[in-house]
């Protein structure tokens, strides 16, 4: 049976500064590195060894993955965060109320529907094409949340609350 572990990257400078990230990048903070080390140690305690690993092309995701495991991995653009267009790098206080739907399209960004299609397709392809039993995928909060949201109608288990930095989901 295939096990997919979905992890969000560790805390970044933009997280601390309450800035919108999206496709733009910012480095992991010391706390973000410590979060990834704690997650790695937890995975070791559970004796989980990964056969395959994938990360978003964002450095914050790749840097997190490199702390979580030392196996070779693939970087995929399709695992990137929601593209927020010209809102990227701006303060989070500018975000409109949820749900965002297609709000960011008018600013050169991506619609929620396009993000969901992209992330669901990417993770489905990884699952289909991977021969390993334990697969690690490091991505981003909104991308992961929309992946879960796409599938939640098929389960009695519901996600509650925010997807925290370096949180780990098991599918």
From TrEMBL:
PROSITE patterns: PG_MUTASE. SMART domains: PGAM. It comes from the Bacteria. Substrate binds at residues 8-15, 60. InterPro entries: His_Pase_superF_clade-1, His_PPase_superfam, PG/BPGM_mutase_AS, PGM_Phosphatase. The active site is at 9 (tele-phosphohistidine intermediate), 81 (proton donor/acceptor). GO terms for molecular function: phosphatase activity. GO terms for cellular component: cytoplasm. This is Histidine phosphatase family protein.
């Amino acid at each position: 049976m295939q096990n997919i572990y979905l992890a969000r990257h560790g805390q970044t400078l933009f997280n601390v500064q309450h800035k919108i990230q999206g496709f733009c990048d910012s480095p992991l903070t010391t706390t973000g590195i410590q979060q990834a080390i704690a997650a790695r140690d937890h995975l070791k305690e559970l004796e989980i060894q990964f056969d395959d690993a994938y990360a978003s092309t964002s450095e914050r995701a790749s840097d997190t993955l490199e702390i979580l495991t030392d196996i070779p991995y693939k970087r995929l653009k399709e695992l990137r965060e929601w593209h927020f267009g010209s809102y990227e790098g701006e303060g989070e206080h500018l975000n409109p109320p949820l749900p965002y739907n297609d709000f960011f399209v008018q600013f050169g960004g991506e619609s929620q529907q396009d993000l969901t299609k992209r992330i669901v397709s990417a993770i489905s392809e990884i699952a289909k094409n991977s021969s390993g039993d334990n697969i690690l995928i490091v991505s981003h909060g909104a991308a992961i949340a929309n992946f879960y949201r796409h599938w939640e109608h098929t389960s009695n288990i519901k996600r509650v609350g925010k997807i925290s930095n370096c949180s780990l989901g098991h599918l």
